[in-house]
Design a protein that fits this description.
It is a single chain. The protein is an alpha/beta fold. It folds into 3 domains: 243 residues, Aminohydrolase, N-terminal nucleophile (Ntn) domain (Glutamine Phosphoribosylpyrophosphate, subunit 1, domain 1); 205 residues, 3-Layer(aba) Sandwich (Rossmann fold), CATH 3.40.50.10490; 146 residues, Glucose-6-phosphate isomerase like protein, domain 1 (Rossmann fold, 3-Layer(aba) Sandwich). 35% of the residues lie in helices and 24% in strands. It is built from 18 helices and 27 strands. A hairpin with a 2-residue loop joins strand 12 and strand 13. The termini are close together. The structure holds 5-amino-5-deoxy-1-O-phosphono-D-mannitol. The site of 5-amino-5-deoxy-1-O-phosphono-D-mannitol has 17 residues, from helix 9 and helix 16.
């Protein structure tokens, strides 16, 4: 969703800000803008469309300002256009704001300000906030910083903001509640951003702002305090992020790079945790909570999108291995349902970004009801990671492509490890199976590599189905969530309508859709439901559906029945999703590329969904 970048220091701000905005493009946006102070004058430039449009607009403009801020907007209040893009100036045009989040009570504040003569030129809640701050400053005679605090105590909603003042071009004021904001500390210079990607090439020293904190950089000094102006000592962390991790590294798209990174990212998600030769499995962050997990009456998993699919895989794993009752909830539904949940329940929140608003809200509700909450997050230090009692990071590295790929396999790897560890602690997992699972887990990166080496075969199939209008994905057991994930990948980046179903459900409705124009992807690896899925394939073939089957290497039956076959290496059936999802990621990627789609930034989508 929206992206924030700001700079104050000794260098021209514009190139840093605009480069930062490009680094944040992956979050999804529809317009962008910058604010600079030239010769004591606040200048704002905004443009609908990509950051390159903004760059065109900036040609020939004075870009010498050493303070500046920029924003990529993902429309919430008002359509995407130049007018609604950020930054937004105050009524007198002396101060400006960039904002991520939503000010929920903006309408009443706006009404009040209209009565005081304010004129608004956009439809946004953000413009109302900067006018509100301006009005407080005018009425109270307080400093800008104090006025920001007063205003923020009045507003309801979520925000990460940065404010610039033309009278004070060495100063930037920032604050957060519910939307992330990180401050980079350089030598006599400071950077503000929604995440660390715009900062990492300049400094590794960062401070993550907490909710209700206000940060002020003025004359080269950073101070942090709360809304009551009580000072806080900045907790400076060193970023582990490397620049290469956020660049394409020779691949055409981030998504392709991230698909091909999976042998490494899966290995990273296991590193230091499981060791097959020693027969050990430990997840540091959960050590003190293993009994709580093992004794849980119920595990409730909350997540959205791909992370929800990883949760569905985990449902099978915890039930099968650890014999614990599991419910997997869409965080957005859970939060508004007055869920029955209590102290004996364990909640696992899964999120790549760690910033998904619905998942965060679900965590808060479960916390209020006394449940213990674990996080499975990718982004270190993210809001969800901080809101949970304990957790395990997935260590997949930055995921820039909007379509989640390596984050999914890393989540499934970590959840598999947790399920095995809990089953062992409960004493319900036979030692030989425990050992076998640890050994087979270690073979996964190599098997994924093998699958990736056959990517061209998937590309050929993608070529044949590039112009399909619909797709159905079918799987049973652990492959059912994989079917859902395959369908989600295809629809989000190629815009082809695709549905995932449990294969046995097909005959209860979707079978009516099957004809010679309907491609059906079957997840048909060798497992306990193999014979059943063979019957389902026959039902589709009998109706002339075109079948692409993902089968286990060496399968001699299914290849003779279907139109196309993609083989995956044999593996313990508990671990199959880690392999069977790979060809589906590749299929959606190649189809989207062949259709000329913007794979990394599909229309209407945002990488981290920080609003409801
Ligand atoms: O960051 P999160 O894992 O919490 O995000 C959840 C979903 O928004 C995300 O998985 C989304 O569905 C992806 N675009 C899927 O590829």
């Amino acid at each position: 969703m929206c992206g924030i970048v700001a700079y104050v220091g000794g260098q021209p701000a514009y190139p840093i800000v605009v480069k930062g905005l490009k680094r944040l493009e992956y979050r999804g946006y529809d317009s962008s803008g910058v604010a600079l102070v030239d010769n004591g004058q606040l200048n704002i430039y905004k443009k609908k469309g990509k950051v390159t449009e903004l760059e065109n607009l900036m040609e020939g403009k004075d870009k010498s300002s050493t303070v500046g801020m920029g924003h990529t907007r993902w429309a919430t209040h008002g359509e995407p256009n130049d007018r609604n893009a950020h930054p937004h100036p105050s009524n007198d045009h002396s101060i400006a704001i960039i904002h991520n989040g939503i000010i929920e009570n903006y309408a009443s504040i706006r009404q009040n300000l209209l009565g005081k003569g304010h004129q608004f030129v956009s439809d946004t809640d953000t413009e109302v906030l900067i006018h509100f701050i301006e009005e407080i400053r005018r009425e109270t005679g307080q400093s800008l910083e104090a006025s920001v605090r007063i205003a923020l105590k009045e507003v309801v909603g979520a925000y990460a903001i940065v404010i610039m003042d033309q009278e004070n071009p060495t100063q930037l004021i920032a604050a957060r509640k519910g939307s992330p904001l990180v401050i980079g500390i350089g030598k006599d210079e400071f950077f503000f951003a929604s995440d660390a990607t715009p900062i990492v090439e300049y400094t590794k020293e960062v401070v993550y702002l907490d909710d209700y904190q206000v940060a002020v950089v003025s004359h080269g000094e950073l101070t942090i305090s709360d809304l009551d102006n009580l000072p806080a000592i900045p907790y400076i962390q060193t970023l582990e992020l490397e620049l290469e991790a956020i660049e394409k590294g020779g691949y055409d798209h981030f998504m392709l790079k991230e698909i091909f990174e999976q042998p490494r990212s899966i290995a990273d998600s296991m590193r230091g945790r499981s060791n097959a030769s020693e027969g050990t499995l430990q997840l540091g962050g959960l050590n003190h909570y293993m009994d709580k997990l093992a004794q849980a009456e119920r595990i409730v998993i909350v997540a959205c999108g791909t992370s929800w699919h990883a949760g569905l895989v985990a449902e099978y794993l915890f039930e099968e291995l650890a014999r614990i009752n599991v419910e997997v909830e869409y965080a957005s539904e859970f939060r508004y349902r007055n869920p029955v949940i209590g102290e004996n329940d364990v909640v696992i929140a899964i999120s790549q970004s760690g910033e998904t608003a619905d998942t965060l809200a679900a965590i808060e509700i479960a916390k209020q009801k006394g449940a213990t909450i674990f996080g499975v997050c990718n982004v270190v230090g993210s809001s969800i990671a901080r809101a949970t009692h304990a957790g395990a990071y997935t260590h997949a590295g930055p995921e820039i492509g909007v379509a989640s790929t390596k984050a999914f396999t890393a989540q499934v790897t970590v959840l598999t490890q947790i399920a095995i560890a809990v089953a062992k602690r409960k004493g319900v997992l036979q030692e030989n199976i425990y050992r076998q699972l640890l050994i087979e887990l270690e073979t996964i990166p190599e098997k994924v590599q093998q699958l990736l080496e056959n990517a061209d075969k998937v590309k050929e199939i993608a070529f044949i189905f590039t112009y399909a209008r619909n797709f159905i994905y079918l799987g049973r057991g652990l492959n059912f969530p994989v079917a859902l994930e395959g369908a989600l990948k295809l629809k989000e980046i190629s815009y082809i309508h695709a549905e995932g179903y449990p294969a046995a459900e097909m005959k209860h409705g979707p079978i009516a859709l099957i004809d010679e124009d309907m491609p059906v992807v079957f997840l048909a690896t060798k497992d306990g439901s193999y014979d059943k899925i063979v019957s389902n394939i026959q039902e589709v073939k009998a109706r002339k559906g075109r079948v692409i089957a993902i089968v286990t290497e060496g399968d001699e039956l299914i290849p003779g029945m279907v139109d196309f076959v993609i083989e995956v290496p044999p593996v313990h059936e508990i671990l199959v999703p880690l392999l069977s999802v790979i060809p589906l990621q590749l299929l959606s990627y190649y189809i989207a590329v062949m259709r000329g789609r913007n794979v990394d930034q599909p229309r209407n989508l945002a990488k981290s969904v920080t609003v409801e």
